[in-house]
Amino acid sequence: MRSKLVAGNWKMHGSRAAISDLLAALKAELPSEPRVDIAVFPSAVYLADTRSLLSGSPVAIGAQNVCEKPGEGAYTGEVSAQMLADIGCRYVIVGHSERRAMYGESSELVASKVKCVLDAGLLPILCVGESEADRDAGRTLEVVAEQIQAVFDLLPVSELASLIVAYEPVWAIGTGKTATPAQAQEVHAFIRGLVAERSTELAAGIRILYGGSVKAANAAELFSQADIDGGLVGGASLNAQEFSAICRAAE
User: Fold this and answer.
1) Residue 191 falls inside a structural domain
2) Alpha carbon 40 to its chain's center
3) Is 170 inside any structural domain?
4) What secondary structure does DSSP assign to 139-168, as a single string?
5) Closest C-alpha to 67, from 51, 88, 83, 89
6) CB of 44 closer than 8 Å to CB of 36
7) Quick one: how far is CA 73 from the chain centroid?
8) Catalytic one among 105, 130, 168, 242?
9) Residue 21 φ/ψ, nearest 5 degrees
10) Active-site annotation holder among 68, 96, 105, 242
11) 59 Ramachandran zone, left/alpha/beta (phi>0; psi -120 to 50)
């Protein structure tokens, strides 16, 4: 059975003081042995602080981005997957819609990042999703398939056992809008079907998260869907009570 994962993407928010307060409150809210996997994703400059503050906690840490080049090199301003592994990261978000839209990351570039993350022994969370214009044009499944296909084109199925996919409809990120449970389930089932075309074993085990204005009020209904294995949470992850309530919903 697939274990659920609740991942909190803090985006470009936080300070040392704010993160210390948030994590203290979160540790007080969460059970010492939660029945779901939980991770938080601070800005890169606070990864080490976050790891230290979470010492002894079941909450893992992850990075919001990674360089598409492996190892070391002359890539000013970049952080490699090996570096992230070295400081204790377990997960890395790749291909978030903000990276694709604001920084021009193509599906092929995102696939290269997935490979680097896997090669470093970390767990990539591959973000896919359509814009509101795509949904209105009936292109949701086409867009999602293209984004996933880029990874299949680069990597064999045998290397994808640790892949996690997060379906995030772009029109629902930070807008307060949320895909209905039925809309989300339709796309999640489609993604699992795409994977099954290559490996039924991989499809049965791969975790597919939902992201897009996930909050305590809608989490339980979303997570009850057959193919939704947790959530990639944005703004609500900056509130310890709200985030912990989402984690409890996943349990």
Assistant:
1) yes
2) 10
3) yes
4) -HHHHHHHHHHHHHHHS-GGG-TT-EEEE-
5) 83
6) no
7) 27
8) 168
9) -65, -45
10) 96
11) beta
Assign 23 to helix, strand or coil: helix
Amino acid at the residue 45: V
Cα–Cα distance between 170 and 97 in angstroms, integer? 7
Global pTM exceeds 0.85: yes
Characterise 142 by phi-psi region: left (phi > 0), alpha (psi -120 to 50), beta (else): alpha
Domain containing residue 133: CATH number: 3.20.20.70
Residue 225 buriedness (CB in 10 A; 0-12 / 13-18 / 19+): middle
Determine which helix (DSSP H) or strand (DSSP E) holds 16, and give its type and residue range: helix 16-29
Cα dist. 5→57, 99, 151, 208, 214 in Å?
A: 16, 22, 21, 9, 13
Examine the pLDDT at 134 and tell me if it is beyond 80.
Answer: yes
User: Does residue 45 lie in a domain region?
Assistant: no
- Total domains in the chain come to 1
Q: How confident is the model at residue 179 (pLDDT cuts 50, 70, 90)?
A: confident
- Give 4 or 1, the one with higher predicted confidence: 4
Give yes or no: 168 in active site: yes
In angstroms, rounded to a whole number, what is the distance separating the alpha carbons of residues 9 and 64? 7
In a domain, 4, yes or no: no
Amino acid at 251: E
Q: Is 13 a catalytic residue?
A: no
Give the domain extent around 110: 61-236
